[in-house]
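INTERNAL AUDIT FORM
Audit reference: QA-55
Scope: verify that the stored structure record matches its stored sequence.
Auditor: D.O.
Record contents follow.
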Amino acid sequence: MKPTIEMITAELRKLSTAEKREVFPRFFKAGKGEYGEGDRFLGVTVPNVRSVARLHKDIALADIQELMLSEWHEARLCALLIMVEKRKKKDEVLRRQLFELYLSLTARINNWDLVDLSCRFIVGEYLLDKSHDILYRLARSPLLWDNRIAIVSTYAFIRKGQLEDTYALGDLMMHHTHDLMHKAIGWMLREAGKRDPERLYDYVLSHRAEMPRTMLRYAIEKFSPQERSILMRRT
């Protein structure tokens, strides 16, 4: 292990707590047969991981790649948050390199928090003025985390008022088998609805019979009780 990786891991260890080490494996479903099976946790909160990431935001991309290979969940999160810090630089070459590195490591971005805290910035913001085709390839991937990256990356588009991909990807993955995707799609639809409530209402009204219930509940969370009551009906 490189000295830089050892240093970052040691700093994370100092910020760990016994309570979080006990709770995190259950919270992130790391048990046998669960989506995070086998993951290991130091027990460090996101704000503390973020503080370490900011201290090491100038490390080389090769060091980030090695940190992403860590057995420790928080070390991988730290690597991703370092990438998020780096993408703030007005350097298009660097942003492309981060984007490509990120997509080469999606098998290691293997829990919902790792995806949600990084993809909007590294993937979504990079693609704002480029083709979005890669998101549709990720949506068709057999890897759950690729699928979640595809939909959550559209958060960057939503914030710019671009809603088409959120709805199109919602259509494409409407019948996904995993609850994590039902939650993610519903979440992004809800965010799109903040920009255009009428469009979301009409979309849910026309898809409510086929939408998984979790997705539906997430999507309509901001509507009035009366509107939610109507939309929760199957017919």
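Auditor finding: record pair retrieved intact. The chain has two domains: 1-110, 131-234.
Action required: none
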